[in-house]
Amino acid sequence: MSETISPLNFRKNAAAAVKDKALRHAMRTATDMFIAKRGEGVAAVPIEVWRDQASAIRLEVLDNLPDYVDRFSFHATKAGAVVHHACNAETARETIFHILKDRGAKKIVKSKSMITEEIHLNEFLEDQDFQVFETDLGEYIVQIAGEKPSHILAPAIHKDRRQVGALFAEKLHVPYSDDPVVLTKIARKALRQEFLDADAGISGANFAVADTGTIAIFTNEGNGRMVTTLPPLHIAVFSMEKIIPTLNDLSLFTKLLPRSATGQMLSSYVSIITGAKKPEDSTRTRELHIVILDNGRSEILAGKYREILKCIRCSACFNVCPVYRTIGGHAYGVTYPGPMGMVLTSLLEGMDKVYPILDATTLCGACMEVCPVRVPLVKLLTLLREERVERGMTPMVEKTAMKMFGLAAKNRGLFSMGQTISKALWPTLNKIAGKGIIGRLPKPASGKFNPGNS
Prior knowledge:
CATH superfamily of the largest domain: NagB/RpiA/CoA transferase-like
Helix content: 40-55%
Number of strands: 10
Shape: globular
Oligomer: single chain
Number of domains: 3
Distance between the termini: 42 Å
CATH topology of the largest domain: Rossmann fold
Strand content: 5-15%
CATH architecture of the largest domain: 3-Layer(aba) Sandwich
Mean pLDDT: 91
Strand order of the largest sheet: 1-10-7-4-2-3
Largest sheet: 6 strands, parallel
Radius of gyration: 24 Å
Low-confidence stretches: 1-7
Number of helices: 22
């Protein structure tokens, strides 16, 4: 099967990203900061103990997921929420559409939600003549730029302040500034009236507590609070594996998630929402609808890749991945980039549609070292790459080259001969094909590899 059959052009995208100096600088600056902050955040806490506990909790949920979904639904309904179950993206979109249409809602404000990106909710609602406003600063930036998020935590990580300043000047007709404080105030002013005029708010959920029917939303901007309290209608959308057993378990993840994501001891805003507004409440939406999405999770749960569902979307694996740090999220061409994204996307979208993104890993294991719930990402990525080969999705040239190398590596004489030939032919090969893969390979060593001389 030729790589060109796939709708994704990962290698072409990656090559272009590597040449983009502004992108590489923005990615390096942001991910270096996240790595440093995480190191500071976990230095004085029993992080390995917390990781073990969190992994055990997530596995307990996966082992009994249907029961936890039922338990959450029961308690959320009892608390006054209306719970909907969506088997796929289409059902989720239609459910949300009818909730909004039946209440005459037209203007919608949203807080950051990767699950709504997964089901392409914004595009669907806009096609139905709804006005949809992303209110997270990063999401707002990529929305007005006509782009998609390139990072779970920081959607506009690929842009520097000068690019954002130019974007705001063009789209919002304001004086150019590259001062982050000024840019934030510009966005706040533009969005403030949208919060006040909105007919509905749509959010995701970081966690959902089975024993109480509670949803928990972690944010570092006040927009999440306003989305879930100012409009009369709140629709929360999340995938079924986001459920955890108890509020006591939530306390662990409240400490673990922000440290893994940004190095913070605690997210700036932790919203704990149970049911709709009661007479004694001063704030909260009058109506709460919760959409729990399957969209292929049940199939994943039953297979050998099930541990990817432990993921809590902290993005720590993105920040340490040498591939992601170099090319950013857009090069992958999918909703979920990075190490966890390669696994999840391959399972949700199907190997035949997205197999080129499996090239985006060195299998170095850095992602596993920082994962707060110990998802075995290297194991899962290796299994997926083996499956790709077994299903004939490796380009013939690459497959032939690897077979030849494997044959030579097993035979000392052939390996030595290959070194001699490659050294002799290298100048000619580099001249003819230096603009492609050949040009990115290191020059052959001047001496032969001989382990017997070590």
